[in-house]
What we know:
The chain is of the alpha+beta class and 158 residues long. The chain has helices at residues 3-31, 33-37, 39-44, 72-80, 82-93, 123-132, 139-157, and strands at 45-53, 63-71, 100-106. Helix 1 runs antiparallel to helix 7 and helix 6 (123-132) packs across helix 7. The relative contact order is 0.15.
Amino acid sequence: MCALKLISNSTAKVTDKVFQRKFIALGKILTRWEDIMGPKLSKQAQPSKIRYRKPRRKGDKPQAILEISTSSANASLLIMQKGMLIEKINYLFGEDWITDIKFNHLASNESHTVKKQTNPLTEEEKNSLSQLLNDIKDPEIKERLLNMGTSLLEDTKQ
Length: 158
């Protein structure tokens, strides 16, 4: 699983109101990446960043370019599907905010996914984290904070 997915799953709801569109957009794409690319291609290509460009003239629309990292072989296949991918992303998120896709080529020996080794939490650590979140009423926010806390604690144990 991509390290960015872990972060986006934990922080998207918490930071949505603060950072709005620019910083949450990549997290939203990561969350739905398998829906966008399909199960096979989602493991072979990963979104790496979104670049925004302000409109040049008043009344023009800003541009958002999604950068996807993948092998050269997969990039040549995905270039043929670029228009369909843009349509799918914009359909899933309800507006036309991705205007182009750029493919970054990775060397064949370079990994594009990050494998995270975790040290599971002890029961005491799990209970302590649960007690900290007892006052949170919204179950979705509580779950996301629990995931984020678990991830942070696992990282500090390494």
